[in-house]
Design a protein that fits this description.
182 residues; mainly alpha
């Protein structure tokens, strides 16, 4: 894993998040349908990739554990989203809101636990706080109009996409960004 420039993963993820964020404002209903339909697959894929990274990475044991926890979270919520498409469509704001909030809590805990080992811990903390905020906002407004939910998801996508692009830019000259990735 040491010879792979992992910042490209961050660049692609950031661009996808920004695209989804913009599309959420342009076509809210279509975005909602597509997010409800494809989020489970995306979370399963992300969980599998994070699991592989945490399994095959040879250094940074404490960081590996946090990445592994995030992969378990993604795999679990991905499976929930794929379980029943009708349920997913109806309960999508609850499911995705709790996933975003749980992801934020993991990032907050990881940033605090790895404060002395990871240079980018304040950035991880900021990401965690923002994710928790957006997740709780979505969970507390689940029965609002569809446009409101997609607008919140759009703001989340653009905010996290911008942070992820900033991360990709910061780490583009490093061989391995695992200890700063999540």
């Amino acid at each position: 894993m040491k010879n792979i420039k992992t910042w490209w993963f961050l660049l692609v993820a950031g661009l996808i998040l920004i695209f989804v964020g913009i599309f959420s404002f342009v076509a809210p209903f279509t975005t909602y349908l597509n997010l409800a339909k494809y989020s489970g697959y995306i979370l399963l894929l992300n969980g599998a990739l994070l699991s592989a990274v945490s399994t095959f990475h040879t250094t940074c044991k404490r960081e590996k554990n946090w990445v592994f926890f995030e992969s378990i979270l993604d795999l679990g919520f991905g499976a929930i989203l794929l379980f029943n498409p009708v349920f997913t469509f109806i309960a999508f704001p609850f499911i995705i809101g709790y996933w975003i909030a749980a992801l934020g809590i993991i990032k907050i805990a990881a940033s605090i636990a790895l404060m002395r080992q990871v240079r980018g811990w304040p950035f991880i903390l900021l990401t965690g706080v923002l994710a928790t905020f957006f997740g709780l906002l979505i969970v507390n407004l689940p029965l609002e109009k569809l446009d409101n939910i997609t607008q919140i998801l759009g703001c989340f996508g653009m905010t996290m996409g911008a942070l992820t692009l900033f991360d990709a830019y910061r780490f583009r000259k490093l061989d391995d960004t695992l200890n700063l990735l999540f």
